[in-house]
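In this supplementary section we document a worked example of the pipeline. Step one takes a protein sequence of length 848 as its only input; no multiple sequence alignment statistics are reported here. Step two produces a three-dimensional model, which step three serialises into structure tokens for compact storage. The input and output of this example are shown verbatim.
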Amino acid sequence: MADARTGLTEADVRERTAAGSTNAAATAHTTRSIKDILVANTLNSVNIVLLVLGTALVAMGRTRDGVINLSFIIAIVAIGSFQEIRAKRRLDRIAILSTPTVTVRRDGRDVHISPAGVVLDDIVVVGPGEQIVADGMLIEGGPVTMNESLLTGESEPVAKRIGDELHSGTFCISGTASALTTRVGNDSLATSLTAAAQGSTAAKTPLQRLVDDVLRVLITAAAFFGLLFVAQGIVSETSAVRVVETATVTAAIVPVGLFLIFVVTYSMSAARLTRHDLLVQQLNALESISHVDVVCSDKTGTLTANRLQLAAMEPVGEQTGSGQAAGQAADDGRSREAVAEVLGTFANSVTSANATTGALRAAFPGRIEALADEVPFESANRWSAASFGGASYVLGAPEALEPHMPAGFEGRDTIDQWTAAGHRVLLFAAGHGTDALHDHEGRPALPPLEPLALVGFADELRDDARETVSGLLDDGVALKIISGDSPDTVAALARQVGLPEDLAVVSGPELDELDESEFAAAARRADVFGRIAPHQKERLVTALRDGGSYVAMIGDGVNDTLALTAADVGIAMESGSSAARGTADLVLLNDSFAAVRPAITEGRRIVSGMRDILRLTVARSATLGMVAVAMMIVNQVFPFSAGAQTVYGLITITIPAVGLALWARPERARTVDAAELTRFVMPVALVNLFYGGSVFVATYYITRHGLQLFDGRFDSIVGFALGADQASAPEVAAILGRTALVVFLILTGLLTILFLQPPIRFFTAPGQPLHADWRPAALVVGSVALLVAIMTTGLRSWLQLAQIPGWGYTALVAAVVAWTLTLRAVLRRTVPLISHWRRTPHDHPTPT
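The serialised model returned by step three reads:
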């Protein structure tokens, strides 16, 4: 066992590390490992099926089709993995800034290391706001007060003394002590809970759940159609090569890259937000924050810069010898001087420094006294105390100390005046007859008190607070300030940063008097909550969520962890406790409150882009399935080839998805649901089926009957060398039909983008606004140019697409025009087709 004063030696640490007695296994990761990224992008069920089918095509001699299929998989895996790994590395570099450290005693010195560096028998120094990362036993100092809520579910603080156990996953609220580490890594009692506190798991967002549902439906459909087509091929004695190619194309009904597009887009957005001083610990929080309509926050660190200055100090009452210095007072001037001396000594002697004691130290130098007893500040108590020189002194909220003072306290007018000016007002008092600050069970307890002085502190407002608050309100996001300070003080500061003059204010004690329904109504109605206890923060967040609001909670202390967990989106300050950072989904680097609005904007932009990508992708999958089934029924010919569907997916989905994700505009709209998705996909797919099927059937039959004159000389017709299984009139007709169909579907697929993001009125549905950004339209033009390049170069023959004569392109253009007019008519008569087109900002749910 290590000596508490010196700790382990470097040799001891090396020995335990070599033996594997380290805490590395309990250390959570902000992002997935590179191995996990590669495995997730490669070994999914659809990729495996396509890989097997592509390999089978190569084995059967259809090397070109097999290579096309395999190249598509390799390209998706490579591009997706590269983008996610690049974003991961950037996030990991930023994450280092907010990684909590642990203080351990080694070779007689206190050193700061990462949680993973803790070894068995380490002496860990525990202080306020720090997380316990390995199980241990208190061996020196204390007592300390612990928050074990993440371990037990109970929010009541627990006092720990020498000999008591400390468990990983708990947090120190107050006090300082040393603990001997007894269990590390996977041996820790609460490794799983610690990982949960670090945000390693998260519930899926609405958009993620919808994508999962869509993929399940499409996978089921692809499997059913694949088995159907294989059975049909066997019955009709189709060649094994053709059966495998049919199965390969059918598998493409499942949009392999859809989930990948989501992950990459989230990762790129998370990396982009680091420029706004925001660290994303849960990627899906970017979607969650897009739905936020209420932000709950303490004023400290958000409205204010967490820097206090002494604004005023005024002695109160008669000084009757409650302390040596105070007893020296004989007149107001000497009383002020004597109280200032005691305040300075109090602030310089306490061991649990904070912004308040820092401001007192700056104003009153004072001396340092040995403490006989001490109670650090806790939000639940709203006071701190220390005993020295044979007397005890208390600094806290006036209403928290008044019950311990004689009746007739003078100073209420001063408190009201300072509070109205936005000052934080505390009462400094002395204890009578004892220097004990704990009862016989070790719980903090106040003796009878005599008031000495009122102390007023001025909060420094953040430079960006007014602009950020104004922006949030303009975006339809309500701001609720939840603080432990006086409600009137918080309200005064809230008005200074732009909240309305008639804002509603309620206090914690008032909330305690309300039943559940009244509490919920107060949570929705009020803008400022003062004198709030830690458990009330969680209750307020829960009440707002139960009332239908989507809530983000900003916190920085241990007492905020329950509220951060209860919120839809938890946001922690970088300078806050490791408990708050570990629980949060997002971390405000440099404590930048201004980063909240860009995060909401980025989230809305992601949802907007993903919504359109999802519509395009599902429309393409529905078109593939419906056209394939219809053509197999009409003329027993499968209408797609591996090369054709690859080009179709590349030009209409893969390339547009990148542009739509990058150029999406933030919109205050709900995530598209299954019904809304269907209302867009089905009209597009059905019109595609009618016109696309007509193009394929007409091309097939006209070509097949016209080929009777060519006596088997078909290579010059299609424009590439035919294989043995392709050199027949029906097969050549099918190749020409597939080529005409894929060209038609590519053109209509690109025009679908214009219906989603119309650059001119022609493409708009009733109530749908014009899309101000012309880049999607330019993307459509560029993609058409890419199609032309493919059809006029060697790529066409490599993909086994036939050459189309000039009159054939004229007919295709006529069919595209007819398709456009038909779809426009359908969309303009389907009201509301896409609900967010007709939604106004006033429709966005905002609490009253």
